[in-house]
Amino acid sequence: MKILVTGAAGFIGSHTAERLAEMGHEVIGLDNFSAYYDIFLKELNAKELLKKNIEVLKLDLRTDDLAEKLPNDIDYIFHFAAHPGISSTSTFEDYFSNNILATQRLLEFTDNLKKKPFFVNIATSSIYGLEATFPESVPPQPASWYGVTKLAAEQLVLAKCREKKLQGTSLRLFSVYGPRERPDKLYTRLIDCGLNNKLFPLFEGSEKHLRSFTYVQDIVDGIVSVIGKVNVCNGEIFNLGTETESTTAQGIATVEEILQKKIETENKSPRAGDQSRTKANIDKARKLLGYNPQTTLKEGLLAQMEWFKTYFP
């Protein structure tokens, strides 16, 4: 099948593109190579994908002519492209244009296709709000611009499904980590601080936060499991993540155990909109998709450590 992956040079998008190619699909990658974090990292991911015959086109969903530059016979779209996370340096316009406007323009692109692709929207546990421990049926209460705009993007996709103009699903991902994780996220930053004797910025109270830290390959297992299950997934939302909870303090301790050294911290003020707890309720995904994440936190962090040492010696 021919599959379009947006945000293909990013963390989870690049891993998913690789997996899809390994499954025998023809993969077209798309990324705008945003400067939200060091473009070098996305270029590095794109080079790795090119080694596996996956080209990542430099396109901006918000402004480029998608009909002119993309094929019209796509079977699936996996939509990762977004302005991620909670950042004090990002404006509401950043989140709005990248998460809402970009999604709407991608959906408009599908309007003109005779053959409609199945649209897999990649969403986030931030949609639930300050605590994300619920099944998909619970009304969302997002508490950040990121969560609000990702919820809006999800609803744009599901609205098309309700109108029967498209078939699609939305996957809410929980606290993903592993090789290629963004530099602003917990474990890449922890590993960097530990290996390079830097102070780790610890937001007040965050050491007690609980997370469903989910290894990226376990997340990819769930993402690609929707292929061939159109009737089961159409119009549905699925949580993807591990049911095992760990505190940030436990995460820090695991990295310290692997490094066999103490990581010094620097106290920072709490971040507005930061979730106090995430625990993936995956009953629905387990039942309908056969989803069953297995990787332990230590196993995943050992893999992430090796990646970091390889590319950032």
Polypeptide structure, described:
By secondary structure, the protein is an alpha/beta fold. The protein has one domain: NAD(P)-binding Rossmann-like Domain (Rossmann fold). Helix content is 40%, strand content 18%. The protein has helices at 11-22, 39-50, 66-69, 92-111, 145-162, 186-196, 216-224, 230-233, 248-259, 283-289, 297-311; strands at 2-6, 26-31, 56-58, 76-79, 118-124, 131-132, 167-173, 176-177, 200-203, 210-211, 214-215, 237-240, 246-247, 265-268, 277-278. The strands form five sheets. It has a seven-stranded parallel sheet with strand order 3-2-1-4-5-7-12, with helices on both faces. Helix 1 runs parallel beside helix 2 (39-50), helix 1 (11-22) packs across helix 7 (216-224) and helix 4 packs parallel to helix 5. The longest helix has 20 residues, at 92-111. The mean pLDDT is 96.
Content of β-strand: 15-25%
Mean pLDDT: 96
Write down how many β-strands occur, each being a DSSP E stretch of 2 or more residues: 15
Strand order of the main beta sheet, please?
A: 3-2-1-4-5-7-12
CATH architecture: 3-Layer(aba) Sandwich
The SSE string, one letter per element, is: EHEHEHEHEEHEEHEEEHHEEHEEHH
Which spans of ≥5 residues are poorly predicted at pLDDT below 50? none
Here the CATH topology equals Rossmann fold
- Helicity, as a percent range: 25-40%
TL;DR?
The chain has eleven helices and 15 strands. It is an alpha/beta fold and 313 residues long.
